[in-house]
Design goal:
The complex is a heterodimer of chains A (115) and B (112). Chain A is 3% helix and 51% strand. In chain A, the strands form three sheets. In chain A, strands 2, 5, 6, 7, 10, 11 and 12 form a seven-stranded mixed sheet that branches. The N and C termini of chain A lie far apart (36 Å). With 112 residues, chain B is mainly β. Chain B is globular and about 40 Å long. The model of chain B has no long low-confidence stretch (mean pLDDT 94). Classes of the chains: A mainly beta (115), B mainly beta (112).
């Protein structure tokens, strides 16, 4: 079974702090994604990566950055946390072959509260 | 600009009956559609998908219908079971690798 592990289930941070959310997958997937889930808005793509050291902006990248130094690990960074970044953050991965690329495997999520 | 819309935030059905979840999209470039299911405290899991060259795909109790002219798809669950109670997300893709555009989700409650 594919396993996508997010380092924290719950996280509470203060406004202005730099926040790191970590995600590791164990199935040698090329593609990795960060989404946030908010009530009434569904899942929105923040950043994604199709290869090591490669990153692309999703639909809502403002206030975030990412790092992919190793194939299995994709980190989301909130440079200066703000209260509107309070959300459920979901990491996902998939294979690079097109038909498989669309089948995402998600982690359990990190509920981040910024106070 | 919400390219994928699920206009019903919630749906309640009786066990054994049919559940129909709806999804509309605006981008005619989308060529692949998926449904994900999410339980509380868990990440979404893939349920079923359909390519734009088809109008129906079936997997056990789950069937997805695609109406390209109306830019509408639906997920049918027959018969519904209490374990189907979850949030269902519709998602779409247009030949951009794994980048999926999700709808807002519909919370399904199946009552015994």
């Amino acid at each position: 079974d594919v396993k996508v592990t997010q380092s924290s289930r719950y996280l509470v941070k203060r406004t202005g702090e730099k926040v790191f959310l970590e995600c590791v997958q164990d199935m040698d997937h090329e593609n990795m994604f960060w989404y946030r889930q908010d009530p009434g808005l569904g899942l929105r793509l923040i950043y994604f990566s199709y290869d090591v050291k490669m990153k692309e902006k999703g639909d809502i990248p403002e206030g975030y950055s990412v790092s992919r130094e190793k194939k299995e690990r994709f980190s989301l960074i909130l440079e200066s946390a703000s209260t509107n970044q309070t959300s459920m953050y979901l990491c996902a991965s998939s294979l690079s072959r097109l038909r498989q690329a669309r089948k995402l495997f998600f982690g359990s999520g990190t509920q981040l509260s910024v106070l | 600009d919400q390219q994928v819309k699920q206009n019903s935030p919630s749906l309640s059905v009786q066990e054994g009956r049919i559940s129909i979840l709806n999804c509309d999209y605006t981008n005619s470039m989308f060529d692949y559609f998926l449904w994900y299911k999410k339980y509380p405290a868990e990440g979404p899991t893939f349920l079923i998908s359909i390519s734009s060259i088809k109008d129906k795909n079936e997997d056990g109790r789950f069937t997805v219908f695609l109406n390209k002219s109306a830019k509408h798809l639906s997920l049918h669950i027959v018969p519904s079971q209490p374990g189907d109670s979850a949030v269902y997300f519709c998602a779409a893709n247009y030949n951009q690798g794994g980048k999926l555009i999700f709808g807002q989700g519909t919370e399904l409650s199946v009552k015994p």
